[in-house]
Design a protein that fits this description.
Layout: E1 8-11, H1 12-18, E2 27-32, H2 36-48, E3 52-53, H3 61-65, E4 70-73, E5 83-87, H4 96-101, E6 104-108, E7 112-117, E8 127-128, E9 131-132, H5 133-147
Parallel strand pairs: 2-5
Antiparallel strand pairs: 1-2, 3-4, 4-5, 6-7, 8-9
Length: 154
């Protein structure tokens, strides 16, 4: 996505990992800016990944603007079988331009920079395996505080 300058944000299970979730999602969820130019860049990136639409609706800006997700399966040997879910308009979440302004940018040791991770806005509404992100964050913070106290049983 980065090589094609797609304006998108990582969200869902993989984004939750950056906020402390212990499990890794098997798909990649992306929030994207629904503009003609950005969709052209996304199409180029998906073509490079040899991605095919695997469910309805078709990959169309009108579906994205109505709040539908478009699902893809990658066939490129380095990403074979990876599922990519693309969304643009999500209920209860700020519009993409606002999310883009509040995004988190991360550096990774392998790939360099992850341009945008959804910032956890409205974490009570963002879920990971049905658990609100806010609850995961609270649990992680509590576990970190608890682990700093040594408990020994006789």
């Amino acid at each position: 996505m980065r090589g094609h300058r797609v304006q998108c944000l990582l969200m869902g299970g993989q984004a939750c990992v950056f906020y402390g979730a212990a499990e890794f999602s098997r798909d990649t969820d992306l929030a994207i800016l629904a503009s003609d130019e950005n969709l052209d860049r996304l199409k180029a990136a998906l073509t490079e990944l040899q991605a095919e639409t695997i469910a309805v609706p078709d990959f169309d800006i009108a579906h994205l603007l109505r709040g539908h997700a478009v699902h893809f399966r990658c066939r490129h040997p380095e990403a074979s079988g990876m599922r990519v879910d693309v969304m643009s308009s999500m209920g209860g979440v700020a519009p993409f331009p606002e999310l883009w302004e509040r995004r988190t940018t991360l550096e990774t040791p392998v790939d360099g920079v992850v341009d945008g991770v959804m910032d956890g806005v409205g974490p009570r509404k963002i879920t990971f395996d049905g658990v609100p992100l806010g609850a995961l964050l609270e649990f992680r913070n509590h576990a970190c505080r608890s682990s700093s106290h040594s408990m020994v049983n006789d």
